[in-house]
Design goal:
Layout: E1 3-6, E2 12-16, H1 18-26, E3 30-34, E4 39-42, E5 54-58, E6 64-69, E7 74-81, H2 86-102, H3 115-118, H4 125-142, E8 149-153, H5 159-167, H6 188-195, E9 211-215, E10 229-233, H7 234-242, H8 255-274, E11 279-282, H9 284-293, H10 300-307, E12 318-324, E13 333-338, E14 342-345, E15 360-363, E16 366-373, E17 378-382, E18 394-395, E19 400-403, E20 408-414
Parallel strand pairs: 1-4, 5-8, 7-12, 8-11
Antiparallel strand pairs: 1-2, 3-4, 5-6, 6-7, 9-10, 12-20, 13-14, 15-16, 15-19, 16-17, 17-18
Length: about 425
Amino acid sequence: MYVYVINKHGQPIMPCKPQKARVLLQEGKATVVKQVPFTIKLLYGSSSYKQPVSLGMDAGSRHIGIAVTTAKKVLYAEELKPRNDVVKLLSTRRQNRRTRRNHLRYRQARFDNRVHSKHKGWLAPSVEVKIQEHLNAINRIMKILPITEIHIETAEFDTQRLKAMENGKPLPVGEDYQKGEMYDSFNARQYVLKRDNYTCQCCKKHKDIKLHVHHIETRKIGSNSPNNLVTLCKDCHEKVHKGLIKIPVKKKNYRDAAFMGIMRNTLISRAKETFDVPVTNTFGYITKYYRETYNIEKSHINDAIIISKNYNAKFDGEYYKSKAVRHHNRQIHKANFIKGGRKKLNQAPYIVKELKLFDTVEYQDNLYFVFGRRQSGFMDIRTLDGTKVNKGSISYKKIKYINSNKGLLVERRKAIPLVDKSTSFLS
């Protein structure tokens, strides 16, 4: 564990041990800037000695591994979970706007006012937010550590090849890439019915019944792609929507592979434009080679250490687990109507008993996050993974405010020791 240091001019310098930071704070030579990760600011001039510091990032759609290393030590390690709720939130917004528009005078859609028609290189918000979270993570770390070089691993997935491997079909070659899975089919419905052999996938009936095509994931967050569609009879379709039965098939999701294929080039180009240090791109096969050479267990943080190019850096096992959240819910009403044809208010007061949403609080010598607030003063505090404390009901009088969080929740954890004690990652 290290304490991160910035000089009196606000520039990051090399971190120090907690013992030295404690002495500086007691002597009044430094002040606390941030609690997690713990950062201090010097109140006197220093030599600002810096070593070559490399940042390695294992880019991903659901998990991001980050490691900052020198030739001998791992100075910082983090596993970041980016947001994956943007598609659902945008669908809810579209639903609310459609409902409001239907209660007003007719207004013709202004297609000349769309973002994608104005700007080339426009990306969907669900992809854009993931790119920004990668860049924000790098920028956040560069404020507390003197980064001299950045290495990012990106990946490109061949979804057609993956589908062929899972279905036991020959791998696509040449013109096969121009012939997708729905080739020679009139539409998606016809392809799904033919794929399922015109048989209900729940009751297995196929004669004298009316067949429907059901969305496994609701159209609010899913798509009309064949892997999200399944054949059901009329009776089973109604039972599925009522929650009486479950679909026995599992959806094969290639969403993360598509995300990485779209964002990889944009991420590297924006990183080179944003940061004034050298940015290089690396690939998974290189990381795999060094991981097998040094006999290192696969994880997001271990891969990030390898990506940073300092293979002999010692890792003490302390890392930060972080999760990206929305800043503030600006939706005034919920999308669904309640009894009486009214919409329920969706917003609580911004501050309840001097506490805001996602504030870090202390309860029984442990740190938690505020996930819910009540006017009575009882708070729903949880760990980062969502585990409730006392069934989510703690009086505000029993908890202590630590700091506010905006868009990012961070907690310190201890990594599970690797099986091979000879690896250079262990101290």
